[in-house]
Amino acid sequence: MLNILITGASGNVGMEVIKALIKNQYPLNLVAGVRDIKTDEQKLLGYKINFVRFDFTDPSTYPKAFQNCDVLFLLRPPHLSDVKKYFFPLVASAKKLAIKHIVFLSVQGVEKSKIIPHYKIEKLIVESAIPYTFLRPAYFMQNFTTTLHEDLVNKKKIFLPAGNAKFTVVDVRDIGNAAAIIISETNKHINACYELTCHEKLTFNEMANKLSDGLGVKITYESPNLLAFYLAKRKEKMPTMLIVVMMMLHYLPRFQKEPKITNWVKTITGDEPITFEQFVTDNSMLLIK
């Protein structure tokens, strides 16, 4: 039986990967790599999964977590951008302990954005010669239930420096389902890269309109300049590095080619990707409170 280590197990994507693996009853031994086992055991209560302490910022936790690990599902915590400091030793440890495959949660368009951490992490993995699969998802619909949630609930507003740029989007449930299938049969996905999107491109103004229609509440969209965005978020005590990441994620697409819509979700899972309207319907109670 293969041993699968899931990093970020209690987060949005990690949870969906675990749910999909358990739902489909793959014959795998699932291990959640978490910083605080006691806390995360409660979050994952009811799931048939083992736990091991794993902290991206503490390399001493790598050997035990990686021991006997066949497949590593790896993601980058949003607050960690120093690839050399955190991911160079991680990938080196994975190679030393003979991890057989890494499924890395990257981002769509990474190959054209050498400035973002995901590009450098992908490069590290390729150079390690560990077989890999890179999942390159579009903009998470679930950002509206996490990073953007406070503005949405308290101000009925989307406040981002994205202008009229169009974004491809994807529901993390589709990412979880695709990742679970790949993890269960990595031999079919060796050194492959998949961009995961739904079948539509949307501006944030269009997303605001769809949120308004689905929630029955008027949601507006405001696109500030970078300075106004930075000052507003610092006033809210958002960490500076996270503000910078959000500016890169939302501002730079204004000057780039529109991202592509792909069919990889259906190709991998056999199901049509979840639409933005369906996401709003399924999360309506969470999105308005």
Summarize the structure.
42% of the residues lie in helices and 18% in strands.
Topology:
Blueprint: E1 2-7, H1 12-23, E2 28-34, H2 37-43, E3 50-53, H3 62-66, E4 71-74, H4 83-96, E5 101-105, H5 117-128, E6 132-137, E7 139-140, H6 149-155, E8 157-159, E9 167-170, H7 172-184, E10 192-196, E11 201-202, H8 204-215, E12 220-222, H9 226-235, H10 240-251, H11 264-269, H12 276-282, H13 284-287
Parallel strand pairs: 1-2, 1-4, 2-3, 4-5, 5-6, 6-10, 7-9, 8-12
Antiparallel strand pairs: 9-11
Helix pairs in contact: 1-7, 4-5, 8-12, 9-10
Fold and architecture overview:
It is a single chain. The protein has helices spanning 12-23, 37-43, 62-66, 83-96, 117-128, 149-155, 172-184, 204-215, 226-235, 240-251, 264-269, 276-282, 284-287; strands at residues 2-7, 28-34, 50-53, 71-74, 101-105, 132-137, 139-140, 157-159, 167-170, 192-196, 201-202, 220-222. The chain is an alpha/beta fold. The protein has a domain at 2-138 and 172-197 and 261-270: NAD(P)-binding Rossmann-like Domain (Rossmann fold, 3-Layer(aba) Sandwich). The termini are far apart.
